[in-house]
Amino acid sequence: MKTTTKIKTLLVLAISSFVTNTSTAQDNTSSTNYDQGFRLGVGLNAGYAVNDPYKLALGADARLQYDLSKRYSLTLTTGYTNLFVSKADGNDVGFIPAKAGFKAFIWNDQFYVMGEAGAAFAVSNGNNDTSLLLAPSIGYATKYIDISVHYDHYADFDRINNNGTLGKGVGQVGLRLAYGFKL
């Protein structure tokens, strides 16, 4: 009889524990509802172009962000960026980027990784090329401030290879400082 009593006691404790954990979990999920919504960020970008003939990149952007949850967001980014040539005999390239992306917060709801893809539309110095644009980044964001390091790859912009021949594909490593707010 002692074995049967122990089994019954353990069964009652297990069921009680399950019911308590289940009702606690249900109460916690309903109290942490996250409001989905839009945010707008305005940023300044400075970077270093990793391919000749370009060296410096400066720009400004606006990013519309839709928060799917507290950790995941969709983004649309546009603005203006200028790649400055390193020598006086070349032409700078100014372009308007148009990118869509996905942002995922990975640590403490402040550190994130983001990937964006889109196009860069050249608009200066008689250049009317359009390039595929791929841009991964990592960053830190608070309620109002967003700081990120990004790499932008412009697949169809001309570059000068090490042997002096003309090639395609220009890369840029940059820093973005932005102010953001909820719409």
UniProtKB/TrEMBL annotation:
Source superkingdom: Bacteria
N-terminal signal peptide: 1-25
Keyword list, A-Z: Signal
UniProt keyword Signal, yes or no: yes
Name of the protein described by the UniProt record: Outer membrane protein beta-barrel domain-containing protein
Lineage of origin: Bacteria, Pseudomonadati, Bacteroidota, Flavobacteriia, Flavobacteriales
